[in-house]
Structure formats: structure tokens, C-alpha cells
Design brief:
Elements (H helix, E strand, L loop, with lengths): L6 E3 L3 E4 L6 H15 L12 H16 L4 E7 L2 E12 L4 E8 L8 H15 L4 E7 L3 H9 L3 E12 L2 E11 L1
Helix pairs in contact: 1-2
Length: 177
């Protein structure tokens, strides 16, 4: 229960758990997108170094084993173009929060929507009952993905997150099995 497959296949995307061999690619992608993602993702506000990328990759098997988080690379045409994860897992409530990001050059191509759909299907298959997606009030693309894929808007958490020295509201969406 609560353990999705290591590899998930969609029509155009392939999701797989990151491997130690992905270190350089994850580091390069993170560095390329850090400034753009800083307002929306907590990790992007911290320095991204080769050591921090190595530390992240090293932590993923334990997080998976303990069922605290499930991380995947999003592959498109065989290349990693982003990441998606289930985190903040509450096993008794069978719920999790979904997070994702994609390289700028791949935005607007339906890749994130497909990745979320594939991952959502797998999470429901392994008996999650509720998936939450939170987006900064300024992250119009993520909010649009949630709405387009049938997530229901459930709350606006005022001043829930500090992004670049300013407090912003989070828009909270959910989908139930």
C-alpha cells in the first residue's frame, strides 16, 4: 500500500525515480531553472550546489522506503525536462501533496499535464484517496494545470509562504479518488 511503481509511462512522458547517475543532469537542470523557480519552490531559494544535488539524490531511496516522499524525473523524448513528486504524505488520511516543475523551454506543451495525470492515476491505484496541489498566487501555470485536470479549488491560505522577502498566498486545490 502507498508505494507507486519506480517507472510510470504516459503517451509522451516517462516518469522514473532519479538514479545516482542522474546527478550531473539534475544539478544542471536545477541551476538553469533556479532563478525562474525561486518565487514558487522552496528549494530554489537556497544555493544549488553539486553537493546539495548529491545529498538530495542520496536521500530519495530512504524517503521512498519510509513512504514519506516519491520523487520522479519527467522524461520527454528520452531527456529529463523536469521533476514531479508526492510529498507531505499522511498515511492515515491516505493523502499527499503534489509538486512539479519543468524546464522553461518545455512549458506549454502539455508535458506537465500528462505527467500529473500519469502520476495521479498511479497514486490513486496504490490507494491514496486525496491529492493536494498548492500553488503560489503568482504561479498562474500551476494553478491552470490544477484547474485543467479537474482539481477542485478548496482554499486560499493567506500569507502562507515567504517568497523573496514577501509573503504570498497559496491557492490550494485537491482531487479525491
Amino acid at each position: 500500500m502507498f508505494e507507486p511503481a519506480n517507472h510510470l509511462k504516459g503517451e509522451r512522458v516517462f516518469l522514473r525515480s532519479p538514479l545516482p547517475a542522474d546527478l550531473e543532469q539534475i544539478f544542471a537542470m536545477s541551476r538553469r531553472n533556479q532563478e525562474r523557480l525561486r518565487p514558487f519552490l522552496a528549494w530554489a531559494s537556497k544555493p544549488v550546489t553539486l553537493d546539495s544535488a548529491q545529498s538530495l539524490i542520496s536521500s530519495l531511496p530512504k524517503l521512498r522506503e519510509e513512504r514519506r516522499a516519491f520523487h520522479y524525473l519527467i522524461l520527454f523524448d528520452g531527456n529529463a525536462v523536469g521533476a514531479i513528486s508526492a510529498h507531505s504524505i499522511d498515511q492515515p488520511k491516505r493523502s499527499c501533496e503534489l509538486g512539479f516543475w519543468i524546464e522553461k523551454d518545455f512549458e506549454g506543451k502539455g508535458i506537465v499535464s500528462e505527467a500529473v495525470t500519469v502520476f495521479e492515476r498511479e497514486l490513486f491505484r496504490v490507494e491514496f484517496e486525496r491529492i493536494v496541489l498548492s500553488a503560489s498566487e503568482h504561479n498562474f501555470r500551476s494553478a491552470a494545470v490544477a484547474r485543467r485536470l479537474g482539481f477542485t479549488f478548496v482554499a486560499r491560505r493567506e500569507k502562507a509562504r515567504c517568497d523573496q522577502e514577501r509573503w504570498v498566498d497559496l491557492l490550494v486545490f485537491e482531487k479525491r479518488k
